[in-house]
Amino acid sequence: MFVSALSLGLATAGTVAYAAQGSGTSGDSGYQTKIIGGEESTENYSFIVSLQKQRGDDPDGHTCGGTLVAADWVLTAGHCVTTTAGANDPGMYHVRVGSLDRTQGGEVAKVKKIVVHPGYKYQDENRGSADDLALLKLSSKVSKAPAQLAARTPAAGETVKATGWGYTKATGNDPSQLPVKHREVDLPVLAPDTPKCISNETDGDAWGIREGDFCTDNPDGNAGTCGGDSGAPALTKVNGRWQLSGVTSRSVGDCGTTPDIYPSVAEHRDWIRKYIG
């Protein structure tokens, strides 16, 4: 069984627990994610990021989402840029910032350094990890406005907006079928002790919530993140302004039908600020 992260292209139909990252090629983690049950974004988010690298004949293959958190720093999921050997070569990656179309527009910059959260332990076995975060230092500053970091974790009963370029169907496994246009879906936050946030019948607590995470439900049993959404922002609006509240990490089970798990930005704010200032 594949790991439950939301990277691109590794999970197959019926896979339990996914992560939102990558392509299934050498150097990808195996995590998967997508936006299921959502719609194309119409608001221009200056801080949204498509993390890209060579995939087959495509030099701009989408791998994960991310969020611009400073002029030259992007926050994404740790599993998006690591393997069992540690952090990948930053030269593999570049980012497109601030465009709803992952193939054009916005600003493009190369990645020159990867800083993985010290608490994150990449695993290629069926076990999710806490602190699933990484910061990407860009080779040059961009002019797009970064996201504001949330000061608190979303509470049960509140709503977050999950975003990304992940697959729109749970059967997605072909990177060429990823949506070009950015998508989003509103998801309700569950209490962290909700049983289905902790475990499922197939994998137990392998991909469940950890300390520092929050968990969202699946409206109508068919909405949530999936392959390609890993690392993308979960947003909340405060005083009319979007804030970065979480980073898409994994599902407790199948895409769109089981809760999604996000490291809370507020819980990891000190670590983020240590690098971005």
Automatic annotation (TrEMBL):
Coiled-coil spans in chain: none
Pfam families: Trypsin (PF00089)
Superkingdom: Bacteria
Domain Peptidase S1: 35-277
Keyword field: Disulfide bond, Hydrolase, Protease, Signal
SUPFAM superfamilies the record matches: Trypsin-like serine proteases
Key word Protease present: yes
GO molecular function: peptidase activity
Signal peptide: 1-19
InterPro entries given in the database record: Peptidase_S1 (IPR050430), Peptidase_S1_PA (IPR009003), Peptidase_S1_PA_chymotrypsin (IPR043504), Peptidase_S1A (IPR001314), Trypsin_dom (IPR001254), TRYPSIN_HIS (IPR018114)
Similarity field: Belongs to the peptidase S1 family.
Name of the protein in question: Serine protease
Protein source organism: Streptomyces oryzae
